[in-house]
Amino acid sequence: MFILTRLTDLLTIQPTSFTIPTRQALEDQINTRYANKVIHKVGLAICLYDIVKSSDGLIGSGTGNVNINVEFRLVVFRPFKGEVLTGRISNSTHQGLHIRLDFFDEIFIPKDYLFEGSQFDHNEQVWVWRTEDGDELFFDKNETVRFRVEEEEFTDNTPVDPALRDSLADADMKPPYKLIGSCYQSGLGVVAWW
After folding, report:
1. Which domains does the chain have, with CATH numbers?
2. How large is the average pLDDT for residues 15-23?
3. What predicted TM-score, i.e. pTM, was given to this entire model?
4. Where is the RNA polymerase III subunit Rpc25 domain positioned along the sequence (predicted)?
């Protein structure tokens, strides 16, 4: 679920931060720049793990800023295909289930990846699995579910001209990182069932 990723970046320390130890100033810069942000084709950066190495600082002409090349490792959320995770149902639609973790909300289980015999109840706005024995098992909101990661989707959201931003619907905006899961194998689905 979590991996370590090595990155390099050019960081700038402003003169106002000269009273802070250099290592602490670098850690603060890295966490501010990367923590809780999606890195395209890498995953969701959680926090800094460690600083591997850094160069000597070079003072910028006219600004007094110090530029330092830093190599560091980040803790990144990127589950592998086939990994089983546990989350909570945030809502249900006729297209499938939306699942959330404590720190990540962009998980979707399409209707085709639910148990055979699952149907959407429009009155209750919930998915129901009708088993071969005739039992009805509900995918209720906020239930803890176990699901398997089937695929991941990265979307490169390039900046949009502010003049055009109003004409674009929010529905057109895709999340930068999304997981597609499944609940069609034994042991998956609502944890209370098993």
Report:
1. 2-77 (3.30.1490.120), 84-193 (2.40.50.140)
2. 88
3. 0.84
4. 83-194
